Amino acid sequence: MERESNGSLAFLDTLATHHSDGSLSTSVYRKKTHTDRYLDFTSHHPLTNKVAVARTLMTRVDRICTYVPDKDKEKRHIAKALKNNGHPSQHVNESWCTAPNPHPSSPEDRPRATVVIPYVRQLSESIQRILAPLQVRTCFRPHCTLRQMLVNLKDQTRLNQQAGVIYEVPCGDCPQVYVSQMGRTLSHRLKEHRRALTRGT
Hints:
By secondary structure, this protein is of the alpha+beta class. The chain contains six helices and seven strands; from the N terminus they run βββαααβαβαββα.
């Protein structure tokens, strides 16, 4: 159990302060180990993701902070943190006053289809602009993440232990190539080929 200290008690990212008159106020809370490290503006991500970082932080200020001085202090802190993460000042200022895009209210405004493509800088934005007049919503996903590179939940099956493989065997006496697909493992099928060569069949 955690008790309040100096009239304040933190819960998640909120600091609740108990005043002498019995009232309560809330402000944004950060642990002492917080590094203010956010998505860097030069990283290989869509611009919408970078704008969303600033917008989310500012939305949290408006929802948590009770008093205007706390809001102003928190916004100055966020502006400095975003600047240290490479975000231009103009981008930060625009994110303060730019509201999220509203959900389409009429069937005509709703997208006819949605496509999800790997994000490649400039190319993905061009595809998005082409599909927009066709009422096709484009969503981006990272094509290579640290999780994909570092985490393997299952042991990889060796190639010679895989089944259903399409393989080719070049002829040693002519330029012909034998191509086949088998349901058994590749190692088992190669043993059959070697046995056939030994027998001369």
